[in-house]
Amino acid sequence: MRANYKMQRLFVESDLGEGTRMLLATDQAHYVANVLRMREGGEILLFNGRDGEWRGRIEAVAKKKVEIALVEQTRPQTPPSDLLYCFAPIKKGRLDYLVQKAVEMGAGTLLPVITQHTQVPKLGIDRLQANVIEAAEQCGILSVPHVEEPVKLEKMLENWDENRQLIFCDEAAPDNNPITALERLKGRKTALLVGPEGGFSESERKMLHAADHVTAIPLGPRILRADTAAVAALALVQAVIGDWNS
Q1: Is 56 in a helix, a strand, or coil?
Q2: What is the predicted pLDDT for the residue at 245?
Q3: pTM of the full structure
Q4: Do domains 9-75 and 84-241 have the same CATH topology?
Q5: Mean pLDDT of the region 76-92
Q6: Cβ neighbours of residue 106 under 8 Å, at least 6 residues apart?
Q7: Do 225 and 194 contact (CB within 8 A), yes or no?
Q8: 19, 68, 142, 215 — which has fewest CB within 10 A?
Q9: How far is CA 39 from the centre of its chain?
Q10: How far is 176 from 218, CA to CA, in rounded Å?
Q11: Which residues pair with 58 in a beta bridge?
């Protein structure tokens, strides 16, 4: 079935199945009752990243409690995306945007990568995961991406799975046509790496170019902000290589 984008969606931790009745967590109950102002008989879509999407009917609304009965499954569970999205953290407001857009564009796992020019070396993983969930709720996504703990670029490359090709956005890439480079990667497991605001250092670029499992692509003649580059790169890779839910 197609997603019903007119109905509110809510991510829950609980198992979902036919005949299930559940109480929402306190913060979600507050959101449904006081922000959305939903009442008995209202319907909402629920998903947990495991059991597909379910249409639920609100059975009771109290001060801090909302009880929901599941009516039917609206969509079966989809497999997680295979795309590993690696990014250098940026300032908080724009980082929220970057994470949300990465989820919308099909990232399956998000990996913060600390580089020499990274502006924000300390991250709140819980905050990033909350942004992932919010984006999944809004965009009809069923498989919720996971945010990994930050890793230094050198460590990431040392432990890299060489069966997965790493695409990194390099403004000085030797090939002026990113499509040509990306077409050679069709059918392969891939990951995408977008650097920090200051770009990769020269030593980092040399390290990346020296690895056999790394492909450098340009994003055009303009210097892009990191969050803009993220969206542009994800759109380009998806257009050429295809979706990652296979």
Answers
A1: strand
A2: 46
A3: 0.85
A4: no
A5: 89
A6: 81, 83, 234, 238, 243, 244, 245
A7: no
A8: 19
A9: 32
A10: 6
A11: 68
Which tokens in the block code for residue 54? 């379910």
Give the type of residue at 178: P
The gap from C-alpha 81 to its chain's centroid, in whole angstroms, comes to 9
Is 177 buried (19+), middle (13-18) or exposed (0-12) by CB count in 10 A?
Answer: exposed
One-letter amino acid at 42 equals G
| Helix H or strand E segment including 182 | helix 178-183
Contact predicate 11/144, CB 8 Å = yes
pLDDT score for 67: 95
Q: DSSP code of 33? A: I
Provide the 3-class DSSP secondary structure of residue 117: coil
- pLDDT tens-place string over residues 105-118: 889 999 999 998 88
- The superfamily in CATH containing domain 9-75 is Hypothetical PUA domain-like; domain 1 (2.40.240.20)
Maximum CA pair distance of the chain?
63
User: For the range 229-236, what are the long-range contacts, defined as Cβ-Cβ under 8 Å and sequence gap of 24 or more?
Assistant: 229/169, 229/194, 230/87, 230/98, 230/101, 230/102, 230/194, 231/101, 231/105, 233/167, 233/169, 233/192, 233/194, 234/85, 234/101, 234/102, 234/105, 234/106, 234/107, 234/192, 235/105, 236/178, 236/179, 236/182
Q: Which fold is adopted by the domain 84-241?
A: Alpha/beta knot (3.40.1280)
Nearest to 89 by CA among 159, 151, 155: 151
Interval 221-226 mean pLDDT: 62
Q: What is the pLDDT of residues 3-45, one digit of tens each?
A: 555 789 999 999 999 989 999 988 999 999 889 899 999 999 9
